[in-house]
Every structure is written in structure tokens, then in C-alpha cells.
Design brief:
The structure is a single chain. This protein has 239 residues and is an alpha/beta fold. It has helices at 26-35, 55-66, 91-100, 151-154, 190-195, 197-209, and strands spanning 4-8, 40-43, 71-76, 104-105, 108-109, 114-119, 131-132, 142-144, 164-166, 177-179, 185-189, 235-237. α2 crosses α3 (91-100). The chain is globular, with a radius of gyration of 17 Å.
Length: 239
Amino acid sequence: MARKIFVSYKHSDRNVAPLNGQMIAREYVDELIKLFKGDEIFKGEGNEDLSEFKDETIQTHLKDKIYDSSITLVLLSPNMKNAYEDESNQWIPREISYSLKEIARQGRKSRTNGMLAVVLPDQYWSYAYFLENNTCPVCHCTTHHTNRLFQILRENMFNIKEPTFNPCWNHLSTNLVYTGLFSYIHPVRWCDFIKNTEANLKIAEDIRENIDAYNLTKVVKDYVRKSTGNELGGYTANF
């Protein structure tokens, strides 16, 4: 059966590696459309400022696109968020929120979508702005720079209720290394996603079937994160 997939992304982010000769996040969505032959793709809004829209307009617009989908892909890119604008006035957090909610319509309630955060390479073909490899010389774990994400993305990562940890002696008790499927919104690098799309979509579906194991945040807060000089903070994990 064909899947219905919603893609949330920042159309105009040009701080990404060139694809098909274009340095813009929108090109990665076109590549997904080619990749998902037989699947139905719904695209998010990405660029538009929400501040001029009424809440009911936003709800109708997003519900129409997300209601029938079962998987949401959030394309992470270096400039996906405006850190100086309320997150409730940006499309991506709203799209994530509606993907996580159970929406009632015409006597039927939708389920929470399975979700993946697909990390796009930056203009240097690096993923380290979010997924930084080998940050420990002993266990070679990966640091997730969650401080750079929208609040609703951050709070739906590392949110498994009963985490398991790698017993690496080089880590303090305040910086334990997570193992397994520890995030409801599971991150994957673009290069790994396109190599094995089916396996990665299956991960999202499996996590969805185990949804009660996670503490979900479904509401977008009016949140503005100004620079603190500590944007590289985050969690560590073994893949």
C-alpha cells in the first residue's frame, strides 16, 4: 500500500549542500518526490510568516495536508529556524505539532504520525551542525546539538520514558550516552536516509507502534531563543 508522507522544511534555506546544481532546501524535497515513487507526498509551507494568519486559518490549512498522512519527515537544515521570532509564528513547529496530534474529523480520529528528522548536509557537506561524530575518544558517540532546534523538536528527542545507556567510563553521570531508539522523532542523515529509505521509514513506523514508551510534547510554545554562546550543547548517543 502506498504511504502518505508529509514533508516539513524551510523552502529557502540556502545554507545546504548543492543538489542538482541548486543550494536550496527545496531541491531535497524534489529529490524525495522522485524517490517515493507510488507514495503520496504533501509539502509543508516552510517560508510564510504565520503572524498575519488567524489560528483557525492555520488549523484548517495544516489539517487538510496532515490529516491523511501517516509519516512526517522534518528536513533539518542549518537555517531552518528564525531564532529571533516566536516559534508559534513559524510553519515548521506548527506542522510538527499537528503531525503529533490526534485530529478528529467526520467521525474519525487520526493517529499521531510516525516521524523522522532527516538532517540535510550544510554547504560543506557536513552534518556536524546537528550530528557531530566521535565526540568521545573511547565510545565514539555522536553528539546531537538539540539546542539548535525548535522547542517542539528538542522535546520530542531523547524523550523515551525508560532510556538505556552505554556504560562508557569516559562519561560523567550528567552526560550519559543514550542507546537504542531513544527519540520519538528519530534523526537520520540525508546520505543514510536515501541509501535505505525503506528501513528508515520502518523505524518511524515501529516507533509509532510503540508510542506509549515516549513522553510526547504536542504543543508549540511562544518561544524565542536568543544566542547564549552555548548553541553546541546537546545530548550524546550511540547509533
